[in-house]
What we know:
Blueprint: H1 2-5, H2 14-28, H3 31-40, H4 46-68, E1 74-76, H5 80-89, H6 96-115, H7 118-125, H8 128-149, E2 153-156, E3 159-162, H9 169-191, H10 197-214, H11 258-286, H12 299-316, E4 321-323, H13 327-332, H14 338-359, H15 363-378, H16 391-406, H17 410-427, H18 436-451
Antiparallel strand pairs: 1-4, 2-3
Amino acid sequence: MEKFFKLKEKGTNVKTEIVAGITTFMTMAYILAVNPNILSAAGMDPTAVLLATCLASFIGTICMALMANLPFALSAGMGLNAYMAYTVVLGMGYSWQVALLAVFVEGIIFIVLSVTSVREAIFNSIPLELKRAVSVGIGLFICFIGLQNAKLVVGGATLVEMVDFKTDFNTVGITSLLALVGIFLMAVLYVKKVPGSILIGIFGVWILGILCQLMGIYVPNPDTGFYSLIPSFHMTDFSKLGETFGQCFKVDMSGVGIFNFIVIIFSFLFVDLFDTLGTLIGVASKADMLDKDGKLPEIKPALMADAIATSAGAVLGTSTTTTFVESAAGVGAGGRTGLTALTTGIMFLLSTLLAPIFIAIPSFATAPALVMVGFLMFSGITELKMTEENYTSAIPAYICIFSMPLFYSISEGISLGVISYVILNVCCGKAKKVNPIMYVLTVLFILKYIFL
């Protein structure tokens, strides 16, 4: 493992990497419950989707570990799964088989773009200031996700507001309080430099939740999304995978217009491309993996792993598989090599056997991890130069940062950051400092807002 993953060179060890891998998995395990729930709305079998998600995550994450030696994990992307189920299938009226075919084609396009270094060129064209801003923006974004998962942030008259702990105390109230306990527990452990502090915090909050359920303080209510915290022990029905496996190739295209099909493909393509690039930029920046020019040496195999996972996931029967921002949790726990990803991938494979156990991990237990990792990524804001002579870079960085949490999208943050960077520099007479690829991206982003 030392020779293959270069642990000493990366300043880490086997124990740290394994703990980091488990931490990443624990923060991602919610996808095993959420993805089947979302895609079942499109008429897909939930158990089949669960198995497809586990296997696609395993394939993609193992590819990331062995091909790129990076601590990033992959799974069915949130947002992309909702787009497939609610927009393409329920909204446009196409079958889920057609949607899976679009995802498969998107993955093939990504493989071609990765082989031809187009995705790598896009990554390298983004200026260092924006890359640092992406890391900070993702920090705020995943913190916001964590607060929502913990039910600490809810909708209200001001769009978002703090939860009322007294309302539905036996469900929302107590779980929100447990999430707060988890945040402070992780913070104390992290400050005291306790190894595996984030993972300890997740298990600690989960155990507290189980105790609250046993004492009647927490009362499960499946109708409102509050399930038992005590895991059940039963095997998964593997025969169900046959209901989605290879179905993307059994499509009747007679009722699908070619233009509409292309629009669907490019919608998946844009969101996946820049979500992935944003995640790689942000997490790699936090892990100090970028070189002095802001480039990621292992970017090509990382992008190839992502592309392979997308196509494999479509064949298995799940929506676009992409690099997960929750990988930052493993990086925050010290993960620096592919051994972290290998551990996460094995956990996804094991979850095909013990999925009911992993699904029992409540979101209020993993939410504090996202809040804590958000803090670690936000600390990169000190590297941004907010001086007057650097305003043409600082203002786009600021736009990129606030766009991610407020528009709930990594790709939107990158889009607006790139557009504002190019326009501001051109208008201020600094057009020569802009990479030519940035002009192409600006035009494509503007066209995306017009047509997609």
